[in-house]
Amino acid sequence: MSGRSGRGVFGKLFSKKQHKERDERATEIGMPTNVKQHLHVSKNSETGMLEGLPTAWLRLINTQITAAEQSENPDAAIQAVKFHMYTIKKEKAQDEPFKPFVTQEVITEEDIEIEKLLDHKKAHQSQDSDLSIGQSSEEETTHYNAPSERQTMPISPSKHSLKKKDALMDMAAVVQDLTLIGDDNDESPMLRKKELSYSKLSDEEIYEELKRICNKDDPYVRFEKIKQLGAGASGVVFIAIDSKDNSRVAIKDIDLTKQSKKELILNEINVLKGFHHKNLVNFLDAFLSYDHLWVAMELLDGGSLTDVVTEVVMKEGQIAAVCRETLQAVAFLHSKGTIHRDIKSDNVLLGMDGTVKVTDFGFCANIVGDEKRQTMVGTPYWMAPEVVTRKQYGKKVDVWSLGIMAIEMIEGEPPYMKETPLRALYLIAAVGRPKIPRWGELSPKFQDFLDKCLQVDVDMRASAEELLEHPFLECAMELRTLTPLIKAAQKILHKCYD
Ligand SMILES: Nc1ncnc2c1ncn2[C@@H]1O[C@H](COP(=O)(O)OP(=O)(O)OP(=O)(O)O)[C@@H](O)[C@H]1O
């Protein structure tokens, strides 16, 4: 599906156009507005097509999922469109840009919200159809907006869909539940008490607490801004020189006035302070200047792994090296009771020396031991089937995503990247393990590694810890062999970190 003509083991270089197409792919969907939901889903016995979903949902399904596909796998079509609508709704509601770590409070609200949007109608199940997802007792009006950039699954709680009082009551119950089911032997950081106490703080108190935990230096005096690296939903990232030791750092500048849930930042900073690993883009310090929070991080001057996979061909030994380093980060996060939930090449940053570090903890979930979460987060193309199909999921979603990232390193892009996000969701749910076009060109060890990552049955899928022992990783080349790939990609993309 990559569109590359064969050359060498993994084919020829990816074009810049394909790189651009890859980013544009996720921006395609523009949605209608004001859709009334009366859900009573059934399958037309003649055409096999779904009926009874909101008109806008059906329009989406019917334009992107064929009648035969709907008929063959109606559940996958329904799950995909539900998930998709949830994503769009969240995309519009997202107004909390900085989320290096997601707290239990956010996840709990997210759980409640997804249930409300998607599943609570099950309470009114129809008796005449297996497919029924019920009928709402009252009309709901949902506004849809086109998602921006790549199709990620934002998790900030919507102000529109959840009454604060109800959310807090439900949250208290869930937090209590989670505390009760916590494993005594689990070493996860127990953060909930602090989160709950923060959630009671007023804006003024939050600023006071931020002042207390941030470095007292004036960032405008201490750092010299060199150049902007990019602007994400989470703020602007730039390179700066730290006058304290002349080191170069990456700084994320967050405008606090645009944050509706400032208390989350307190938790995030505290969590980040406690998470240091050689394969994570480590937090260095936080600074407060009026309404701006500057978060200083290690600077990775090699750009993202996406730049490399889309532009140059990687050898198996180089892929093994990146997998090993990423797995070390993932295993570390898992050992701390945290799921990353958004492992993909965009979130793996490289140093010019070949250092590999995982970043963007904006979708992390704190978990307790092997406790499973019922939330749907991540980026559709990298998403594990159990996430799309709304089954309970746990740490192993990161292992699936790592498998998809390995496919990116082989093929230049994840499976279904040329499909719309909705169709990709359907295919993930319906097909399960994706086909890998260059499968026959891979070594048996690499094939086995991918097999262990991409098991649809979560129990059959290896853990990050187990994968670190896999023989494929013994083939890893030295990290410095990544440097020529990074340089080649930077040259093609005209990127420079000086
Ligand atoms: N520590 C870092 N070192 C080098 N580059 C970085 C670092 N952190 C972020 N970047 C780069 O800066 C740009 C913006 O990063 P940011 O994380 O804000 O963007 P994003 O991931 O697209 O957005 P978001 O995560 O907020 O949705 C990206 O190109 C990213 O690769």
Jot down its keywords.
single chain, 498 residues, alpha+beta, Phosphorylase Kinase, domain 1, 3 domains, two-stranded antiparallel sheet, 13 strands, disordered N terminus
Fold topology:
Elements lengths: L15 H10 L9 E2 L5 E2 L6 E2 L3 H10 L2 H6 L1 H20 L10 H16 L21 E2 L21 H18 L10 H7 L4 H11 L5 H4 E10 L2 E8 L4 E9 L6 H13 L8 E7 L2 E7 L6 H7 L4 H20 L2 E2 L8 E3 L5 E3 L6 E2 L18 H4 L7 H16 L9 H11 L12 H10 L10 H4 L15 H11 L5
Antiparallel strand pairs: 1-4, 2-3, 5-6, 6-7, 7-9, 8-9, 10-13, 11-12
Helix pairs in contact: 4-15, 5-6, 8-10, 11-14, 11-18, 12-14, 14-16
Bound molecules: adenosine-5'-triphosphate.
The site of adenosine-5'-triphosphate has 17 residues, from strand 5 and strand 9.
Task: Kindly describe this structure.
- The protein has 498 residues and is of the alpha+beta class.
- It folds into three domains: 6-198, no CATH class; 201-298, Phosphorylase Kinase, domain 1; 305-493, Orthogonal Bundle (Transferase(Phosphotransferase), domain 1).
- 40% of the residues lie in helices and 12% in strands.
- The protein is built from 18 helices and 13 strands.
- The protein has helices spanning 16-25, 55-64, 67-72, 74-93, 104-119, 164-181, 192-198, 203-213, 219-222, 262-274, 305-311, 316-335, 385-388, 396-411, 421-431, 444-453, 464-467, 483-493, and strands spanning 35-36, 42-43, 50-51, 141-142, 223-232, 235-242, 247-255, 283-289, 292-298, 338-339, 348-350, 356-358, 365-366.
- Strands 5-6-7-9-8 form a five-stranded antiparallel sheet.
- β5 and β6 form a beta hairpin.
- The chain starts with 15 loop residues before the first helix and ends in a 5-residue tail after the last helix.
- 46% of the residues are buried.
- Mean pLDDT is 73; it is low at 1-20, 23-38, 95-108 and 120-196.
- The structure holds adenosine-5'-triphosphate.
- Adenosine-5'-triphosphate (ATP) binds at residues 229-230, 232-234, 237, 250, 281, 297-300, 304, 349, 359-360, 362.
- Residues 126-136, 143-159 have a biased composition (Polar residues).
- One of its GO terms (molecular function) is ATP binding.
- Keywords: ATP-binding, Cytoplasm, Kinase, Nucleotide-binding, Serine/threonine-protein kinase, Transferase.
- Its main location: cytoplasm.
- Residues 223-473 form the Protein kinase domain.
